[in-house]
Task: inverse folding
């Protein structure tokens, strides 16, 4: 089906989120939408999906104007959407979640679930998904939840599929799988609109690229464009796409984790006698396939979870039995993996979220209350410094775009005297220009003498930021290697192969390649 958006304009008060946007997507085409945080991409997709009413403009399907007053209307017309924030209900099964997509206005019926079960099985077979229709959503890894969203979007035979930053929570392997599925769907005639901040993905899968800046289309680009060209077009200035940092100047043990073990409620070892020391003034980045204990390690460092054994020592002080509040007060900056559940309070204002764990400290405290002036001044400064795109600092943070919410969390955590920085997926959902800035600030935190731990599923980010890389596997550190370690070796270590063996196996593979070439 051909999709045409003509002159779409959407305002929120005085803010023009979409300013006369025109877009034509042909059947079977993969169109990427690129743009800075807050450029208006999600808003445009929400207009297309019937969630927002456009103030001006028209949507045409195969040349015929259509009007959607709800998502149900859009679904009925053949539009499917996978949202940036998952819309799945954790306590439902996969089949129940898909059944909800059939009739958005009706209650869940048994017959629907039966049909949905069948549908999940069929779609899984078609695309090689490994999804159990009876599994509970909350028990599934995010990558599988993402696939359930796709099955759900496809359950009404969508001819136009919108994927709003589907890869932000996926591992590189899952991303590659998703791109294969996108190609398969496009070959079958589905039109796909794909939103991502990762230029590699855009270049790998898109047929055409539309760039949006501050609510307006600024141009089209071809997937053959270089990453530098695309970044410049997006942000309006040249962007450094690698981390620029000097050598580290480590100054003795900062964070020491000794013999940490943690048992999950079901008895599996999620941290297994883990030892790791991060010196003051160095960045240790943790590489690993998601689910090898990285998130649990971060929670143990902050005190959200108590380990079953072992100790956490910061600057000589044993924190193992201290609560989260005490740890935060001691100057730990913590960027959580999932901003929406651990990093912000949706109903609070942007200004309040910028002091969420610091409001009891100077200069924000005024007796038992908060000093509104200090909070407002801080918001003003952070918004400018981190280039956070907002309307007013007194608006709820929930009105910000996803990437701008992330920037609020990062700005808050980095703008303090840090005794430790624990950054988990620090640039998730953030545009390339802001990635450059956040990386710079993380390096500055290191250079000010703080120990820094970065956890990231982006290998480029790990390699770019790290002074040393700790590879995590099954709850332990399988090896600590220099940042310039060969990526193939890192890949093998992430699969559980110890360093020496990984190097030997990499060498023998290289040798075989040379023989093959000869
Ligand atoms: N419900 C809302 N109320 C007020 N303002 C909103 C609302 N939704 C979005 N906005 C504003 O509209 C603008 C566009 O936001 P949108 O979410 O479309 O950006 P985006 O391009 O998807 O960004 P990102 O890459 O960060 O996801 C932003 O300035 C945002 O703050």
Result:
């Amino acid at each position: 089906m051909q999709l045409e958006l003509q002159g779409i304009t959407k305002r929120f008060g005085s803010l023009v989120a979409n300013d006369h946007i025109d877009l034509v997507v042909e059947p079977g085409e993969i169109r990427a939408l690129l743009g800075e945080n807050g450029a208006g991409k999600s808003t445009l997709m929400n207009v297309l999906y019937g969630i927002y009413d456009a103030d001006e403009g028209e949507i045409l399907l195969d040349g015929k104007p259509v009007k959607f007053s709800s998502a149900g209307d859009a679904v009925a017309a053949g539009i499917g959407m996978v949202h940036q924030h998952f819309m799945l209900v954790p306590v439902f099964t996969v089949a129940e979640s898909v059944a909800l997509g059939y009739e958005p206005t009706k209650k869940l019926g048994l017959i629907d679930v039966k049909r949905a079960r069948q549908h999940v099985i069929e779609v899984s077979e078609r695309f090689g998904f490994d999804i159990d229709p009876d599994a509970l959503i909350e028990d599934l890894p995010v990558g599988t939840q993402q696939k359930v969203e796709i099955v759900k979007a496809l359950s009404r035979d969508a001819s136009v599929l919108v994927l709003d930053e589907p890869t932000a929570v996926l591992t590189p392997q899952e991303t590659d799988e998703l791109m294969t599925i996108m190609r398969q769907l496009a070959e079958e005639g589905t039109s796909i609109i794909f939103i991502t901040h990762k230029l590699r993905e855009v270049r790998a899968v898109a047929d055409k690229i539309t760039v949006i800046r501050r609510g307006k289309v600024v141009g089209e680009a071809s997937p053959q464009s270089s990453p530098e060209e695309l970044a410049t077009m997006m942000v309006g200035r040249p962007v450094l796409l690698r981390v620029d940092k000097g050598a580290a100047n480590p100054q003795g043990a900062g964070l020491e984790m000794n013999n940490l073990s943690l048992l999950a409620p079901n008895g599996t070892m999620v941290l297994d006698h883990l030892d790791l020391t991060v010196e003051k003034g160095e960045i240790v980045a943790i590489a690993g396939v998601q689910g090898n204990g990285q998130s649990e390690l971060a929670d143990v460092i902050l005190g959200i979870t108590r380990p079953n054994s072992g100790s956490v020592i910061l600057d000589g002080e044993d924190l193992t039995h201290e609560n989260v509040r005490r740890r935060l007060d001691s100057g730990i900056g913590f960027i959580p993996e999932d901003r929406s559940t651990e990093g912000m309070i949706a109903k609070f204002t942007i200004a309040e979220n910028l002091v969420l764990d610091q409001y009891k400290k100077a200069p924000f405290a005024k007796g038992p209350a908060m000093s509104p002036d200090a909070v407002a001044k801080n918001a003003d400064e952070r918004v400018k410094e981190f280039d956070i795109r907002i309307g007013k600092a007194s608006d709820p943070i929930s009105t910000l775009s996803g990437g701008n919410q992330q920037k609020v969390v990062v700005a808050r955590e980095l703008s303090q005297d840090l005794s430790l920085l624990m950054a988990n997926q620090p640039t998730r959902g953030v545009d390339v220009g802001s990635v450059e800035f956040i990386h710079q600030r993380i390096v500055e935190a290191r250079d000010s003498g703080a120990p820094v731990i970065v956890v990231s599923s982006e290998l480029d980010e790990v390699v770019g930021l790290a002074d040393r890389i700790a590879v995590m596997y099954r709850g332990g550190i399988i090896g600590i290697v220099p940042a310039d370690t060969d990526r193939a070796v890192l890949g093998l270590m992430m699969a559980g192969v110890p360093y020496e063996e990984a190097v030997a196996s990499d060498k023998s593979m290289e040798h075989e390649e040379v023989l093959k070439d000869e």
Observations:
- The two ends are 50 Å apart (CA to CA).
- DSSP finds 18 helices and 22 strands in the chain.
- The first helix runs from residue 41 to 48.
- Residues 30 and 189 are 10 Å apart (CA to CA).
